[in-house]
Amino acid sequence: MARTLLLIASSSNLDLLRTPRELSLKVVLVAAAPPADESLYDVHLAANEFNEGAVLSAVHAYLRGGGQVDAVATFHEGALHVAARIGAELGLPGNSQEAVRAMRDKFVTGQQLEAAGVPTPATRIATTYAQAMATAEELGFPLVLKPQASGASQGVTKVSDEVELKAAFENIVGIYDLNSFDEDGYSVPNVARVYAYPEAQGVLIQEYVQGQEFAVDFVYGGGEYRPLAIHDKPYPFAEPYFIEGAYATPSLLPEDQQSALIRTSVDALKALGATVGGAHVELRLTASGPKIIEVNGRLGGTNAFVQESIRESTGVWGPREYLRAVLGEPVDFTAKPHPTPAGFTPVLADRTGELAGFEGIADAEALPGVVALRWMAQPGDHVVIKYPENPVSCFVLVLARGEQRDDVLSALQDAEKALKPIYTN
Ligand SMILES: Nc1ncnc2c1ncn2[C@@H]1O[C@H](COP(=O)(O)OP(=O)(O)OP(=O)(O)O)[C@@H](O)[C@H]1O
Ligand SMILES: [Mg+2]
User: Would you say 118 and 267 are in contact if contact means Cβ atoms under 8 Å apart?
Assistant: First the structure.
């Protein structure tokens, strides 16, 4: 009999939603709004996918009605705690609620990594500006301030003196109160409404870590932690903010440094109690070795092309391997012996306004090496540029592959030059 997967949260990435079908699973999808394509699921449970209580009652009602659930999964950061709660209630494989908290709440991450001796920046939490000043006195500038639990680099700011500290602190405190970002009559939803972990609303203050940045994706279960790929982040961030740019894989680092990134990431996953699932670990490579910046308890790229880039490169589709892990199957995928260079970039809108459409689509698609575009905005959508509190300005993602790293980066750069938003005025 077909096994039934409880999939929490919809996604604009249809590749993710199609993956359970590759494993011939029956899908019970919990989402406030299901995707238009009804062939992607068998049963829809209407509930706010980020609300534990709401999802729990919907699932209980479904089970009382004779429904069955063999595994629970989510690809969405904002629903990890909900999936863990359901998994705990139903006794299904997956990360515990404690592990999910340890990964989503960056203060808990910092404390647990430090206690376990895994290298990570010194991490403090402040709820008042007086505490923030005392922390600055203790750790010294430069520092990085960020929300205790958010995503998309929301509010993440490097500060070098007290004036910048105060501005960044107040900015982050303000994030928690807003439903939307509004300017000149344009309005976009506040991403913290989706990403913020319930009741973790402090301001995180960290020592600034100097070094090139990398992201490592994993699937794990049964005591095995298997890396899918390392992505280099080839361009420096436009500090003092950290809006994500291009990713490229395989890494150009020497083997021993790649191994060090993987070792440190696995140490972090173990220290945080991650036992079954996916992970996207971000690290910086310092003069004294890798330091963990963030451990996400899910695969990279709910929307971004992280997994597609890995598939172009290694032939492995991480979301499928993640589903196999939560189904209790062995984590034993095999990558191509020689990875193909691949990568992606977000293309960012340049100003606030209403989108009428886009130009350069055919030119971008015709570029050698460009594999796919994924639209993150549609005509009629508003854009509000307000860094760092509203980091969302990507209107399209570009995926590319090539024979060499440089082919990938040129394809991405040329596509970025070609693709432009058209505004209504
Ligand atoms: N302590 C630090 N030192 C140096 N850079 C940092 C530090 N903390 C964060 N950053 C930079 O800011 C980026 C975003 O921070 P972080 O990953 O903690 O936030 P996030 O909102 O989860 O981001 P995202 O969802 O984009 O990964 C990091 O990828 C890194 O470039
Ligand atoms: Mg991050």
Answer: yes
